Amino acid sequence: MPGLGTTLGRGGATTAPQDLLRADCILIQGSSMAEAHPVAFRWVVAAKERGATVIHVDPRFSRTSALADLWIPLRAGTDIVLLGGLIRHVLEHELYFREYVLAFTNASVLVGEHFRDTEDLAGLFSGYDPEQGAYDGASWRFAGDDPARPERDETLTDPRCVLQLLRRHFQRYTPELVRDVCGVPPELFAQLARALTDASGPDKTAALCYAVGWTQHSKGVQIIRAGAILQLLLGNVGRPGGGILALRGHASIQGSTDIPTLYDLLPGYLPMPKAGVHTSLDQYLGAVRSRGGGWHDADGYVVSLLKAYYGGRARADNDWGFDFLPRITRDHSHFGYFMEMMDGKVEGLFVMGQNPAVGGQHARFERTALSRLKWLVVRDLVEVETASFWYDSPEVRRGELHTTEIGTEVFLMPAAGHAEKAGTFTNTQRLLQFRDKAVEPPGDAKSELWFVHQLARRLKEMADVSARSEDEPLRALDWWYPENEHGEPEVHAVLAEINGYHTEPDDGAHHGPQVAGFADLRADGSTACGCWIYSGVLGPDGVNRARQRAPEGAYFHGWGYAWPADRRILYNRASARPDGAPWSEAKKLVWWDHERRRWTGLDVPDFVADKAPDYRPPPGAVGLAALRGDAPFVMQADGLSQLFVAKGLADGPLPSHYEAIESPVDNSVYEQQKNPVARLHVRPDNPLAEPGDPRFPIVLTTYRLTEHHTAGGMSRFLTHLAELMPELFVELSPELATSLGIEHGGVATVVTPRGAVQARALVTARMRPLFVAGRWVHQVAMPFHWGGRGHVTGDVTNDLIPLLGEPNVGIHEAKALCCALFPGPRPPDASIPRYLAAMAVRPTPERV
Amino acid sequence: MTSPEPQTSYHGQPVLKPPVWTWEVPAYFFVGGTSGMSGVLALGSLAGEDSLLLTRGLLWVALVGALVSPVLLILDLGRPARFLNMLRVFKWRSAMSLGVWTLIAFTSCAGTSVLLFEGYAVLVRELGVAAELVTVALSTAIALTAVFGALLATYTGVLLGASAIPVWAANRALLPLHFGVAGLGSAASLAVLLAGDSTPLLLLLAAAAAVETLLLIKNEVSGRGRVVLAPLRRGSGATRLRIATLLMGPVALAGLMIGAAELSALAFLAGSLLSRYAWLALGRESARDPRAVL
Amino acid sequence: MAGFRGLPLFAQIFGRKDGTGTEAMSPRTRQLSARTTGSQTTRSVCPYCAVGCGQLVHHRDGELVAIEGDPESPINQGTLCPKGAASLELLTHPARLTQVLYRAPHTRAWEVVSTSWAMDRIAQLVWESRARTFVKEVAGERVGHSSAVAHLGGATLDDEENYLLKKLFTAGLGLVSVSNQARI
Amino acid sequence: MAIGDGLASNNQRRHLYVEQQVTVGFFTDPTLCIGCKACEVACKEHNALPHDGFVFTAMSYDNTGALGASSYRHVKFVEETALAPDAPPGFLFLSDVCKHCERAGCLEACPTGAIVRTEVGGVFVQDDICNGCGYCVVSCPFGVIDRRQGPVPGAGGAHKCTFCYDRQKDGLVPACAKTCPTESIQFGPLSELRERAEARRQTLLDRGIAGVSVYDPSSVGGIHALFLTVGDGARFGLPSSPEVPTTHLRAAWSSALLTSLFAIVASALAFWGAGP
Ligand SMILES: Nc1nc2c(c(=O)[nH]1)N[C@H]1C(S)=C(S)[C@@H](COP(=O)(O)OP(=O)(O)OC[C@H]3O[C@@H](n4cnc5c(=O)[nH]c(N)nc54)[C@H](O)[C@@H]3O)O[C@H]1N2
Ligand SMILES: Nc1nc2c(c(=O)[nH]1)N[C@H]1C(S)=C(S)[C@@H](COP(=O)(O)OP(=O)(O)OC[C@H]3O[C@@H](n4cnc5c(=O)[nH]c(N)nc54)[C@H](O)[C@@H]3O)O[C@H]1N2
Ligand code: SF4
Ligand code: SF4
Ligand code: SF4
Ligand code: SF4
Ligand code: SF4
Ligand SMILES: [Mo]
């Protein structure tokens, strides 16, 4: 989550759903919270009942909009324009929370003089290399040499200071532009702006909630950045009832980013070493560590991770085993390797708890790619479409693939469910919650813990008798876990390693006592730690804090464990004035206790506990000591939140609007049509519609239903969920339905350059055509939960979606693309050419 | 499509549940009505002379009907094996409970009557029971058979009338009359067919046919425009009911006038049977229309 | 006589009741109790979405009885959304896999295999594919990876599981094509 | 009581209402409902109900369609097409349930005593008694109770919301109310709920929401599952003036008795008059 990471310091929600109760205004944009996070929405409803204003910005009028005080329909993919409009409004009318902005953000920091903005370069930032399709961000750096102490202009008047750059950058994001690009009428925009700014100030806060309605765009990270900038300008981060609630997806999606099964990350947001870049540990640490701020101590985190991985084989003389780690060379992400799979370059795939045959983008492509594998291991609770692609898929039915010609060796292994194994989930509010095991899994079903352990034992045995040098890391791997009677490693042993321990054992044990927290971690090999941000969860007292269930106080400490260090609201030092007093009685959270000379309050201070507000770092100070006593964003080199991000983003230091890769209109903000650095993956089997392609005039967005879960493996097989939403449908406006001759409840076919999908038509005034740039743009929306198996089946919406990636995280664009719509069913062979031929002669639908 | 109609119901969905009853229930109404009123006729026949054979026949009809009725009732139950649970309680507010108790009483009385009637000789001559005593017992039994029979024939109207189905409830006062008279006519018709016509039977049939004719007329002329009564105007239930009352009323009367008593009887019986089905169909249609209750 | 006294009609007549109240209750009704009563309870967390609602898993003799919201959880305070509320069916429905299924190349059907055979075979396949595709270096730069054995998934798994997966796959085997839902 | 009271809330805390014979009820408030259908699912899970068919109805997001023998809760989705082109559309959800009428048609109609009134005032169908006569089905003025069609467990019998009598006996809150994420369904002593409903109505009126009323029809003596409605109750399929069927008994029995009398007299007269 680099949007939040680069801006604030950590890639996680700054707040928790329960804290929304303290908000005066809640802006939900890019999420249908009531539908996708219903129980979190409980707190929104509670806040509303206490007088908070709830706003929902969404192309669809959804169950979330129904409960909101204000619904703002916008064209999918144009959030940056709306947010930019709000930023401009706040700046132009001097409505920002000046004291907060001045002290806690980098508004006053000066940017180097080589920087050129999109204003000057027709929508590009300086440093763009059209050959590479990439930026060299060198010109985006701040002025001055020491990132911990950048040059600042406290008057905020220097044209090179961030605030003035922002002002200039967003100058063109006027209400009229918002109207013309988003389709939001100026009156509605004014209402939105008023509601937000009214809820900003010392005794008011507004919270922002987003989810994949923001992320699944070719510029998703920058949308989040725009939201974060707005929240910072309004002084809402780190304060009760404020903050940015990134509503994450699966039960432990946050956990699987914290302890990532991702190609470019190591646990605790340490980057994976890159070939040719991180050639030695020193070089790597040089890149990871910062002089000022929390990342200064990363050497301890890195060495402790290597100790956890390689145990005694990680020694000072071998750089703690740094070279045991593989290097990444390119985009090895989901899309990256599925492309390679299609080209026959991937031999084997493990799928554990995912169903790309339905949930994957351009699912038809992904299913086909599966058939090029030598072997495939699927572990799931049920036989999902990913496991059955070789005999029961649209491709097999259409004759594109033939079962007997598919050489893939497939294993389908029964997985244990959540109550059949013990372990920890990390939820959307960074809270680790341990589950006990209730019952045994049925039959041969096993946990992943069992699977990976048993696989590791076998592979390590093979490595032990192999003489190959490349098996050295495997031999070195410290696989010490005691087994229980089922041959499963003790989950507490794994959690203890994640927490970290002192490596010196007392009495022949594997290791010494557990460390108390990440502050204990050292770079000298005396500590090992599997994920530094989780350190403290199972400390020396042996208490599993993730298993605690005794909530106390306003932030219910004692219920689970929130990383880092059980802080429930991140950057909570910002809830106090620079001088350490609460901004107001109503909004107090953490403050400086003059008597005890400590930070105190309702939450664990996200700050050095005894660092006085007036602390000024001595020259030469490093790490947290290099940060002032009024710099709450402790993971940043300067302790400030970054309105302008000088480093770490692939597509620019400031958010700027580009049209979706597939868009019905030209970009009216800049000449530059689309994100210049988006990963397009153009190839014949992944065709894209050109901007304004008359054959695909309708905006298509996709979303989820309360009644189903993602790719359906956990809902389509359950009678009690399946019956609630039995068929795939497409939501469209009455106007569009009339103009296309589509009947409510009838069947319609949705077509994109990649596929044709049949769905029932749900004609509803909740979908609304928008007047954009002088013409009517129609939008349709589809859920994506259906596939070929389960009690209810249907076409795979994702057969429509292109494979393309956002430049920072590689996320796909499933929230804004273009399609055509036809009444009636699709032919059984889904012959797209037939539709394309018919499309050439169709007029663009207008509002009727 | 932008100026929608105001919503006056929930997606046009029915508010009420249609009756789950199948063919057995209207058949039971018919059988119960016919046999019940046969009991009434049996009592009446005592007032005539030389009609003991008729009385005996009518009692047998009553008894056979009484025995067939529960079979039909049970067949329609979702859980036939539990029929006896009907006897767990006595609920005066439940027309079904009263009906079942009535049926039991009627069956007992009809059974006793038949037993006494058929066993008269044995009782008096061989067992030496006083003839007066047996006669009084028999008369009482027949009288009770008649009373319970009349109730059996009419309670089914209460059963429908005291329900939530709008078209039934709206006809709550009419239905017992309608069903009772249909039962009376049917009993008379059956007797005509089984025992040959006789003046009293023809009189009764004529009276029943006359009442049904009046009801037909009333149905056609009153209540127009009332949503609850809409099913009586249009639909398959309405058609069936029209045919049924035509058969029971005008057709049967016409038959009597032209002296075709058997034809009248047959027409009446058919109409009587059909009318019960018609009312079930009307109930289904009525339940389906949300306008009737919203 | 006891049976007769138990008959509601009797109670009705002698108790002057109308047959609609407790007098008409059957013995079974009188003995009704919640299905969770007398079961064991294990605290858990909803497996669906990231809200992380607390659940109470009720079980008896090793069989699941019910799964409900944990009223003490400050996250959900006993409530659940429809998915969380369907968790019992998630774990108990008949389509749950209970055996390892195997499909040999080019064949048309699944066969049931033993877990240990499958594990041995998978280990062998990983070993071979990795050996075949391992890249020690590219243009003189250290790489030490195989990108041809890939992993997908993780957001439904436990932190401990993901930790071991990453440790084995990346730190041990040098696999880099590792991804989960966080990417998409 | 407010959302977020947690264990202190009536929706979560254990109670002794059955022992204390406190009349309890529901108050269902569509202005708090998010249409999530958790109530439907929790009810089905608790009562182990079979599915009701996998049928797409095109009635907004409602594919349950109606309360029935296998659906004891039913969330209604009322979509209002925008009246002015730019006004936000209306989208309201209401979780419908058996009303547990003060004068319950089903209860009065049941000939077996399968339906009883419990200590907490709920109307409860005893599945081990019901013989499936179907009379309750036509006696419910709200179209709630229905006979379950086989082949599924409980087939042939009449079923509807049990008011979680089994749970309540053990001090547990009904599954639907307990699970409701936004406390749109509130459970508690009926008298308290009546007050709360009225207060809620007032609050909403004060907030400028027009046409709010409490649905508690006196024609059936009041109900134990109160609803708040916004605008015309007909949109929610709630009958404006539901009738207790047994109120028709007097008229119907009068007619039956008169008819009986008529039949007996007529037949006597016919035979007597026709005699010699
Ligand atoms: N019931 C249920 N809950 C779930 C899931 C589920 O499958 N079912 N999945 C879980 C997972 S994995 C995730 S990631 C989360 C996702 O949670 P959400 O992001 O809330 O889910 P979506 O429905 O995909 O998208 C949210 C909204 O974004 C809107 N939208 C589309 N395009 C745009 C746009 O350009 N701008 C704006 N502002 N809005 C747009 C859609 O109309 C939709 O209402 O939900 C989690 N919770
Ligand atoms: N068009 C479109 N496509 C989308 C999205 C969208 O908004 N629009 N959203 C995207 C998003 S955000 C996501 S997260 C993906 C989700 O898509 P996927 O992750 O592919 O879908 P899920 O159905 O969540 O797959 C999780 C699987 O894990 C299984 N499972 C559960 N618990 C366990 C366990 O303990 N062990 C094992 N081995 N398996 C388990 C479940 O049965 C299920 O089959 O879909 C993406 N696709
Ligand atoms: S109950 Fe619903 S909201 Fe809560 S964690 Fe489960 S899926 Fe998410
Ligand atoms: S709503 Fe219907 S089923 Fe429920 S108690 Fe009232 S009459 Fe009975
Ligand atoms: S169907 Fe069952 S519950 Fe309904 S009235 Fe008949 S016996 Fe009573
Ligand atoms: S009270 Fe119980 S039976 Fe009735 S709807 Fe709620 S959960 Fe279902
Ligand atoms: S659980 Fe509550 S919020 Fe959800 S549909 Fe039912 S009543 Fe509405
Ligand atoms: Mo997700």
Q: Work out the strand percent of chain C.
A: 15-25%
Query: Into which percentage range does the β-strand content of chain D fall?
Result: 15-25%
Shape of chain D: globular
Name the overall outline of chain C. Answer: elongated
Helix-strand pattern of chain C, N to C? HHHEEEHHEEHEEEHE
Terminal CA distance of chain C reads 72 Å
Strand tally of chain C is 9
Instruction: Profile the largest sheet of chain C.
Output: 3 strands, antiparallel
Number of helices of chain C: 7
- Helical segment tally of chain D? 7
Average pLDDT rating of chain C: 95
Report the top-level CATH class of the largest domain in chain D. Alpha Beta
Describe this structure in a few short sentences.
With about 180 residues, chain C is α+β, with helices and mostly antiparallel strands. Helices cover about 35% and strands about 25% of the residues of chain C. Chain C has helices spanning about 1-5, 10-15, 25-30, 80-85, 85-90, 115-135, 160-170, and strands spanning about 40-45, 55-60, 65-70, 100-105, 110-115, 135-140, 140-145, 150, 180.
Overview of this protein structure:
The complex is a heterotetramer of chains A (848), B (294), C (184) and D (276). Chain A has 25 helices and 29 strands. Chain A is α/β, with parallel strands linked by helices. Chain A has a six-stranded mixed beta sheet with strand order 23-25-24-29-22-28. By secondary structure, chain B is mainly α. Chain B is 73% helix and 0% strand. Chain B contains ten helices and no strands. Chain B is globular, with a radius of gyration of 21 Å. The mean pLDDT of chain B is 94. Chain D folds into two domains: 17-242, Alpha-Beta Plaits (2-Layer Sandwich), CATH 3.30.70.20; 244-276. In chain D, the strands form four sheets. Chain D has a four-stranded mixed beta sheet with strand order 8-1-10-9. A two-stranded antiparallel ribbon of chain D has the order 2-3. In chain D, strands 4-5 form a two-stranded antiparallel sheet. Chain D starts with 16 loop residues before the first helix and ends with a helix. The interface between C and D is large, with 35 and 41 residues. Bound molecules: ligand MGD (2 copies), iron/sulfur cluster (SF4) (5 copies) and molybdenum atom.
